[in-house]
């Protein structure tokens, strides 16, 4: 006989919905609760329910039984209380429920199936029948039959509360978990075989620890997440609410459509908001979260209670959800709708786990080290860490710096950015960078080839260092017996020379290579390189002057380069000379003279009188012998350093190089810094052509295609092609590094400030010099000019040699000024500059260039105005005129009052208005000025509310000179 679904549901003690879902699970197509189902189906469904509920029951019961009663201990005593309620559904005698319990126990005792199959069908009627069977099994039960379930000592712990409780608390007519068949259902529960399985219809599902749950669970309103969820334990079967009678059985269809309603705002990830379906507000607690992303995930917006530690709330809980769905399979009905594919969910997850930095979503790093070359761009960094360069630009923008993706970025900026993204940025040092480059060509720089037997002694290379005017050049001059001082512009050594001299020590002729480094502060960089490229430093200290700032600086360079020092105490011919004082002073800096028990050799010399020179040379040789192993392999491709380079009009680029190891020969293919070429000719320090330059020999090399930088290393390579490749790579790297260094970075704040002022000011320069050293020194000195942020200086090009037409056209195009240092224009460059209005400045002294540039920069500053009060007049009387309006009859009490000048009206010390003097009269005459002590009449522009005793103060804005 056909029955309607709701009728059968009622009969079975289920909700129509539950029954519908069961039917669907069985493959029966039933549209709604009022649909009819045929008898065979009714039978099938009853059987199914009976079968399933039997083993699962125990767990389901506790789920609500426990909470219903305050304590599980109350289970047994509470059991009796259950009686009255249980019967109700059974719609029969109150005694019936009691027998139901025995039935439960009986069922498992014998294979549950038969008992169940019989029992569920007729709830009320069969219960009594079952009772007798059960009763004997519970003979020692409490006197009350209701307690019969308890006799089963084997009942699992969880089932205890359930056993007693299941039936009792239920206010609803449906007693047992499944089917309201007290007997069968409960019996099944008692079996104590909790099924963790994934049968969605089993009312147990091992969820015995369920908390009291208000109806409507799963709607997101429930405060009480499940305890297991909190621990992050996987949810068995995902049965959110298995078999809780009186509530709809959860199934995927009941889950919220949207996978992550808690992802509010797109930025707050998951957080507490989690999936409301699982108790919404409760959030997905931390256990399952991803602490790694906690930083940005935060507790999320969605949920009130998401524990902060939850961080990336979407943890296992989230996945539990999908697991649940999996467990339910399709049985849950229309769950498929709106569900996201695995791929979608993965993408979503990936997206979520990327935190936002400055509003940009970027996957965070893992703290690993990223090596970048100097002057790397954001694109380079992006490539290494696999993100979009544009997002890095945006991050940096949000950090307050504006750079584009391909622009060279300063090291510190890269490091800050790296730290923000959780990477350690390691900017490769120039040395490492170069070594790596050479290694890529299978070249090893800096090591002698071969073994000990291949090494031969070489002369020490010596750098002379010291304070300005302490006599470095004069001393070298004396040693070489030449005189270069006379030719110097401004009296400062501005080029580097290297010379080799010979001296006799212990009857042996020993050679020493001297490198003359300039003494001016501006050449610090070159001097530092000089110290590094040599073996021993001779520190020149004038005996009459003592230790000076640059003496210390030079000393520190030498120490940093771990170069032994020999002190030349110069100018001892002078009366004021105090060599002992110099020794004492230097002792304080760690240079203890040998005679005082130290290990530094001090030699008193006089460059002018040429005394002590031999002793100095001997001291150099002895120091070298004592502390250095000066040997090199002369039979290998030469390697060394370019000490100085310049562009010679007739000979092209000329580089003075010092060979460190190997022997340089004419015809060798060499690369020096970013210059390359083939050695066309070599000239020694005597001006003679040589064909070979062994270790420690300085020579001028001709044949390079461009001018190398002072301090650049040089090496002989296999062929011209390799030389060119290395040079090109070096050049591009240098350019990037230079760009990062010289481009003045503007922060947003600065930019906004400047934009507010209406313009940004930048002085662009093109530097041309006679040698690489001087151009470098000039650029460094110019970079040191500090006149604040309002104007900036940018060197857009630099080079060695004459000012060319190319330079002029670049200057014209970029509105730059050309600075020529010891160079002049070439060809039609002057005419071009004149017609294009390009400013070319010529200098031979570095200071003059610095001063001019500084003045130019200051000239670009906006004028500063300050107010200057010119006079004050007191209003003594007020006249009204139909022609002039209100006239103030005044006495000038200070300074003078001029017509049209700016004025302010002051009443009782308070400025009433600011205006200007519209008319000024003495007697009846218009005047331009009235001085102190005179009376006058005046009117104020657009203001007539004047009173006697008011003071009119006139002032003007005067341009103020900048400091
Ligand atoms: N009386 C005396 N004067 C000396 C001696 N050595 C150098 N001078 C003078 O000191 C001045 C500076 O000498 P330089 O050799 O140009 O000094 P420097 O250290 O090379 O100077 P910069 O090139 O500017 O760094 C010159 O006027 C020299 O004549 C010396 O031994 N005795």
Task: Map the helices and strands.
Layout: E1 3-4, H1 5-12, H2 16-25, E2 36-37, H3 39-68, H4 75-85, H5 87-90, H6 97-109, H7 112-118, H8 123-137, H9 159-165, H10 182-190, H11 227-231, H12 294-297, H13 316-328, H14 342-353, E3 356-357, E4 360-361, E5 369-372, H15 378-385, H16 389-398, H17 411-420, E6 424-427, H18 430-440, E7 456-457, E8 461-466, H19 472-480, E9 497-505, E10 508-516, H20 524-532, E11 536-542, H21 549-560, E12 565-570, H22 579-588, E13 601-604, H23 613-627, E14 631-632, E15 639-648, E16 652-661, E17 664-665, E18 669-672, E19 675-683, E20 689-690, E21 692-693, E22 698-704, E23 713-717, H24 720-742, H25 748-757, E24 761-769, H26 772-783, E25 791-800, H27 805-814, E26 816-821, H28 829-836, E27 840-843, H29 846-860, E28 864-881, E29 885-898, E30 902-907, E31 910-922, E32 925-926, E33 929-931, E34 935-940, E35 951-960
Helix pairs in contact: 1-2, 3-7, 3-9, 3-10, 4-9, 6-7, 6-8, 6-10, 7-10, 15-16, 26-29, 27-28
The chain binds guanosine-5'-triphosphate.
């Amino acid at each position: 006989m056909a029955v309607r679904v709701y009728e059968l549901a009622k009969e079975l003690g289920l909700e129509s919905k539950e029954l519908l879902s069961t039917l669907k699970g069985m493959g029966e197509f039933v549209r709604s609760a009022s649909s009819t189902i045929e008898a065979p189906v009714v039978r099938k469904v009853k059987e199914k329910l009976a079968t399933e509920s039997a083993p699962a029951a125990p767990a389901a019961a506790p789920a609500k039984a426990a909470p219903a009663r305050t304590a599980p201990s109350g289970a047994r005593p509470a059991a009796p209380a259950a009686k009255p309620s249980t019967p109700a559904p059974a719609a029969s005698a109150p005694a019936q429920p009691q027998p139901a319990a025995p039935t439960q126990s009986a069922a498992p005792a014998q294979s549950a199936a038969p008992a169940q199959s019989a029992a569920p069908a007729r709830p009320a009627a069969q219960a009594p029948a079952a009772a007798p069977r059960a009763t004997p099994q519970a003979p020692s039960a409490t006197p009350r039959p209701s307690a019969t379930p308890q006799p089963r000592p084997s009942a699992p712990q969880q089932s205890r509360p359930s056993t007693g409780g299941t039936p009792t608390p239920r206010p609803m007519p449906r007693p047992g978990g499944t089917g309201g068949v007290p007997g069968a259902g409960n019996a099944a529960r008692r079996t104590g075989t909790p099924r963790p399985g994934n049968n969605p219809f089993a009312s147990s599902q091992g969820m015995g620890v369920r908390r009291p749950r208000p109806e409507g669970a799963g709607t997101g309103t429930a405060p009480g997440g499940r305890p297991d969820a909190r621990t992050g334990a996987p949810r068995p079967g995902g049965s959110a609410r298995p078999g809780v009678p009186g509530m709809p059985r959860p199934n995927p269809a009941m889950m919220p459509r949207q996978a992550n309603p808690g992802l509010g705002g797109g930025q707050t990830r998951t957080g507490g908001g989690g999936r409301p379906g699982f108790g919404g507000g409760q959030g997905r607690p931390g256990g399952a979260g991803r602490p790694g992303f906690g930083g940005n995930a935060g507790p999320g917006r969605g949920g009130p209670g998401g524990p902060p530690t939850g961080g990336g709330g979407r943890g296992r809980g989230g996945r539990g959800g999908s697991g649940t769905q999996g467990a339910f399979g399709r049985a849950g009905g229309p769950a498929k709708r709106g569900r996201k594919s695995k791929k979608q969910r993965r993408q979503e997850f990936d997206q979520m786990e990327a935190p936002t930095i400055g509003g940009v979503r970027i996957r965070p790093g893992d703290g690993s080290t990223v090596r970048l070359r100097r002057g790397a761009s954001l694109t380079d960094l992006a490539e290494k860490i696999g993100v979009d360069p544009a997002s890095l630009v945006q991050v940096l923008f949000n950090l307050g710096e504006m750079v584009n993706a391909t622009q060279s970025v300063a090291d510190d900026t890269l490091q800050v950015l790296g730290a923000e993204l959780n990477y350690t940025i390691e900017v490769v040092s120039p040395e490492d960078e170069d070594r790596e480059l050479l290694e890529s060509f299978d070249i090893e720089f800096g090591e002698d080839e071969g073994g000990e037997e291949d090494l031969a002694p070489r002369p020490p290379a010596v750098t002379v260092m010291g304070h300005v005017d302490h006599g470095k050049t004069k001393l070298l001059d004396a040693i070489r017996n030449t005189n270069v001082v006379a030719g110097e512009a401004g009296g400062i050594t501005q080029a580097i020379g290297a010379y080799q001299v010979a001296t006799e020590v212990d009857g042996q002729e020993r050679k020493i290579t001297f490198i003359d480094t300039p003494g001016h502060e501006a050449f610090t960089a070159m001097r530092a390189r000089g110290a590094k490229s040599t073996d021993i430093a001779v520190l020149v200290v004038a005996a009459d002057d003592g230790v000076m700032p640059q003496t210390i600086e030079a000393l520190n360079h030498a120490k940093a380069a771990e170069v032994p020092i020999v002190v030349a105490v110069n100018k001892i011919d002078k009366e004021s000379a105090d060599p002992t004082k110099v020794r004492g002073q230097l002792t304080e800096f760690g240079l203890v003279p040998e005679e005082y028990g130290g290990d530094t050799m001090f030699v008193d010399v006089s460059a002018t009188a040429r005394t002590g020179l031999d002793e100095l040379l001997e001291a150099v040789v002895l120091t070298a012998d004592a502390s250095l192993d000066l040997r090199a392999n002369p039979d290998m491709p030469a390697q060394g350093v370019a000490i100085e380079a310049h562009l010679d009009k007739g000979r092209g680029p000329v580089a003075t190089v010092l060979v460190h190891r190997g022997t340089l020969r004419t015809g060798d293919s060499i690369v020096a810094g970013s210059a390359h070429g083939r050695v066309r000719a070599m000239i020694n320090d005597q001006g003679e052509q040589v064909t070979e330059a062994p270790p420690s020999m300085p020579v001028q090399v001709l044949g390079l295609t461009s001018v190398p930088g002072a301090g650049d290393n040089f090496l002989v390579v296999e062929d011209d092609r390799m030389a060119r490749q290395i040079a090109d790579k070096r050049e591009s790297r240098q350019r990037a590094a230079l760009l990062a260094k010289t481009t003045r970075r503007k922060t947003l704040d600065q930019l906004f400030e400047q934009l507010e002022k209406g313009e940004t000011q930048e002085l662009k320069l093109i530097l041309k010099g006679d040698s690489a050293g001087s151009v470098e020194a000039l650029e460094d000195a110019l970079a040191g000019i500090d006149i604040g942020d309002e104007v900036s200086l940018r060197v857009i090009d630099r080079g060695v040699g004459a000012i060319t037409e190319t330079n002029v056209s670049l200057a014209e195009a970029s509105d730059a000024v050309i600075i020529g240092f010891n160079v002049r224009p070439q060809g039609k460059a002057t005419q071009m500059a004149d017609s294009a209005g390009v400013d070319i400045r010529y200098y031979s002294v570095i200071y003059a260039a610095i001063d001019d540039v500084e003045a130019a920069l200051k000239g670009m500053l906006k004028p500063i105005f300050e107010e200057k009060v010119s006079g004050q007049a007191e209003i003594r009387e007020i006249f009204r005129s139909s022609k002039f309006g209100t006239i103030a009859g005044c006495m000038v009490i200070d300074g003078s009052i001029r017509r049209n000048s700016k004025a302010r009206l002051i009443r009782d010390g308070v400025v009433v208005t600011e205006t200007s003097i519209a008319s000024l009269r003495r007697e009846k005459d218009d005047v331009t000025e009235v001085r102190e002590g005179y009376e006058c009449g005046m009117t104020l522009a657009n203001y007539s509310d004047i009173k006697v005793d008011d003071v009119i103060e006139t002032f003007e804005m005067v341009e103020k000179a900048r400091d």
